[in-house]
Amino acid sequence: MKINRLICILSIIGSGIFASYYGGNIPYALFYLTILIPVIAFIYTLYVYFRFKLYQTMDSFLVVKGDWTGYSFIIANEDYVTFRNIKVNFLHDKSTIESTSQDVNYSLLPSERERLDTKIKCNYRGEYYVGVDSIVITDFLYLFAITYPISSKIKAVVLPRVVPVEQLGIAPPQIDVKNPRRFSNTAEGELDTELRKYSPGDSRKRIHWKATARQRELLTRQYQNIPKSEIVLFMDLMKIKEDELKVVISEDKIIESVLAISNYYALRGTPSQIIYDMDGKRQIDISSKEEFNAFYTACVSIRFQSNTPIHELVRDRMHRGDEGLFYVIATHSLTKELYLTSWQVLSSGNHVSILFISDDITDKTKELIDSMKLSGISVYQIMSEDEIGTVLNREVG
């Protein structure tokens, strides 16, 4: 394009000099023609800019990260003039379009259209634009190019993956739902409205004395077993200080690891709690697949803007006096405070596993991980290229 512009400028200068020296109709006609050509080219470019049509759509705007979904776009010439050199630029930083290059050039005859039916894959969780980013229109002499920003871009809502876990390798044996539990998973809840006859061995504290007096026989209150959460998941939503791509990858892995573990227990009927800080401390209780699905849908809008360090969330929960629970901490930062808090949780009779999502392999970090492991804290480092499922799953031996 630069060469064409240079030739055009030199032509204008040369024809101007020729006309000034020799005069006459032909030299001046050549001079005016060299001026008129770029003007016509520019007007043509503007005309195409305002007249071409673009349509694009997806089969579904709510998709799961990594899943392919149908995508199509149409670029059309609904005019009476040929459109040349229309370049389509696709967004490719967070999505991938199957079987097409990222930049495609089209030339359209009058009433002609080009259609592309393919698939698109969103690579990260969140809400962002996908598909066509911009259109570059170039004139027939390659003198001018106008970039047409797409005002009606497609916005996809991308849910995180739920990684299937066959057997949770990070869980201690007494918490693994396929093995006998060391700790009770139920707590008793009183139902005053349901009574039964007293049986030998029943606690005298359960006797309903007023009902006994009315019926003139010993009656005891009926109790039901209320599930007690054994799994407590902590999600670190502090802002991650890395380059943009690593930030997105780390955020996805933190959310997906929590989802994978919570889903694993929900499918097996074991209650779990998810604790995190986003506009205040939040605690999500999950004891069924329906409750898990509700939390899963909300994960698309989770923001990593917490002001509360993860060790404070763990410490606040520990002060309840938990014993015999399984703490899982998904974080992107290992600190001395988290080490000390985790050790206190461990000393209280709980089990602690830390999922450290980071590429940090400095000597300081390695020493901290070694110290945690020596104290009995399970630490699993998950790097950018690692798969969540590989870390969480284990073969049944």
Walk me through this protein's architecture:
With 397 residues, the protein is α/β, with parallel strands linked by helices. The protein folds into four domains: 2-49, no CATH class; 51-159, Immunoglobulins (Immunoglobulin-like, Sandwich); 189-227, no CATH class; 231-392, von Willebrand factor, type A domain (Rossmann fold, 3-Layer(aba) Sandwich), CATH 3.40.50. The protein is built from nine helices and 19 strands. It has a six-stranded mixed sheet with strand order 16-15-14-17-18-19, with helices on both faces. The protein has a four-stranded antiparallel sheet with strand order 1-3-7-5, with no helix packed on it. Strand 9 and strand 10 (145-149) form a beta hairpin. It is elongated and about 130 Å long. The model is unreliable at 175-193 and 224-228 (pLDDT under 50).
Number of strands: 19
CATH T-level fold name of the largest domain: Rossmann fold
CATH class of the largest domain: Alpha Beta
**Secondary-structure element string:** HHEEEEEEEEEEEEHEEHEEHHEHEHEH
Structural class: alpha/beta
How many discrete structural domains? 4
Distance between the termini: 66 Å
Query: Any idea what the CATH superfamily of the largest domain is called?
Result: von Willebrand factor, type A domain
Q: Note the main sheet.
A: 6 strands, mixed
The overall pLDDT average reads 83
Q: Which strands sit side by side, in order, in the main sheet?
A: 16-15-14-17-18-19
Spans of 5+ residues with little confidence (pLDDT < 50)?
175-193, 224-228
- Fraction of residues in helices? 25-40%
Given the C-alpha coordinates, what overall shape results?
elongated
Proportion of beta-strand residues: 25-35%
DSSP helical segment count:
9
Task: Tell me what the CATH architecture of the largest domain is.
Answer: 3-Layer(aba) Sandwich
The value of Rg in angstroms is 33 Å
